[in-house]
Specification:
By secondary structure, the protein is an alpha/beta fold. Helix content is about 45%, strand content about 10%.
Amino acid sequence: MTVLAETSHPLPLEPVQLLDEHGDPADGQVLPPAAQRLQMYRRLVVGRRFDRQAAALTRQGRLAVYPSSNGQEACQVGAVLAVRDTDWLFPTYRESVALVTRGIDPVEVLTLLRGDWHCGYEPYEHRTAPQCTPLATQALHAVGLAHAARLAGDDVVALAFVGDGATSEGDCHEALNFAAVYRAPVVFFVQNNQYAISVPLAKQTAASSLAHKAIGYGMPGRRVDGNDVLAVYRVVRDAVEHARAGQGPTLVEAVTYRMDAHTNADDASRYRTSAEVDAWRKRDPITRLERHLRAVGVLDDAGVAEIAAEAEDFAARLRERMNTDPVLDPMEMFRHVYAEPTPQLREQAALLAAELAVEAEAPVGGVEARA
């Protein structure tokens, strides 16, 4: 029997880190300007307050479902701030904080999760694709757009958010392979929050890390501490510029943790211990950056209070606006499906129109049943 020699690869297992868990800078690291670090802190605080408010709205029945980003804010804030406004984002269902950081109206962000429409914001206006619920399909969309941009001579980069569970999907493999072969300007940003619903990472892959999967595709792989917003920003920014320079895609694995359950419908206590959650709580991304900013004199009690008040005002305005029920037209679901509606679509529209007419106690002929 031939025994294959174990080979090594220069990709390090230790994630890139600019601030340790206590907020102390790593040796030899050049940090972003103080004003930029403070702005990142502000985005983290507002993002978490938005997330907590959205979770509360779900418990009140205002949202149909909500996948929390609690604990993963540094991944989403750092990654979004690392791209240009002209670049494209391809989010999953868990990237609500990323979309708010992008500047998208929070009510429009929650429209999908409220069950009102497939997407509440204009993708072209924000250069942000609709939040994707099926695992990994957004990775293919990102590659398609990025490849088209490259053929057109546009310097656009696509940032594809992916979960650790999505790396087990065939769509993810196809996206990574195509992007590497055709050197598409894509950054695959994998938030490894340790669980795909109830399935731990150890049952997702036998690889040393998710970043090591990049080797098989022939692209660079990077691991970053996903609870260090400065490190996430640095690593993603470098990967984005690598892609923009025509050097092809990069796979970035951000090592983080999902503090809440998968969604409000999940009972996380069935598959993980409270001790594990408590251990990760000590690595909180906001606490880490706050300690650092206080230590270097950029932030004090007054500054913390001011940003907290800003976040509370953001949440209050969101609550107020979410208390107003939107006016929805059920017939709208048949529009914008095809340029020329199919016979089946017209038939379905007519059936719904008839049902709506009965409910309104109005004659069927008085209801428009066009697709």
